[in-house]
Amino acid sequence: MNQDLEVWLMFLPFWLLGTVAILAALWHGLRFVVVHGRAHAAGHVPRLSLGRRLQWHELTDDGRHHLKRALQAVLIFIGLSAIGVLCVAAWSLWRHG
């Protein structure tokens, strides 16, 4: 088998799972913005601003859910990317000594 193809096939599962994780992070992040905007419009939560950190207890249950899932998906993406790079680096060192 071609060595370049073998490396890409080794990295492929991490790349695919990482892509799904980053898409999940984007979806949950967008849902958080929508949910928080609706809750702010209804007067339930304070406005989201760059100068002030939003406290966890100030969010609605749905907002906390989507924010937590978005952060988890980003961490999963970072972890999968790191594992994929380490696998390829280990394979390269093992193969080429």
Blueprint (SSEs and pairs):
Layout: H1 3-41, H2 61-96
Helix pairs in contact: 1-2
How many structural domains can be distinguished in the coordinates?
1
Calculate the mean pLDDT score and round it. 89
How does the overall form come out from the CA principal axes? elongated
Could you give the order of the helices and strands?
HH
The Cα radius of gyration reads 19 Å
Percentage of residues in DSSP E strands: under 5%
Q: How many DSSP E strands?
A: 0
Our count of helices gives 2
| Main β-sheet description | none
Helix content: over 70%
Which stretches are low in confidence, meaning pLDDT under 50 for 5 or more residues running? none
Helix/strand-derived class?
mainly alpha
Distance between the termini: 19 Å
Structure characterization notes:
- With 97 residues, this protein is mainly α.
- The chain has one domain.
- It has 2 helices and no strands.
- Helix 1 runs antiparallel to helix 2.
- The longest helix has 39 residues.
What is this structure, in a nutshell?
This protein is an all-alpha fold. Helices cover 77% and strands 0% of the residues. The chain has one domain (3-48, 56-96).
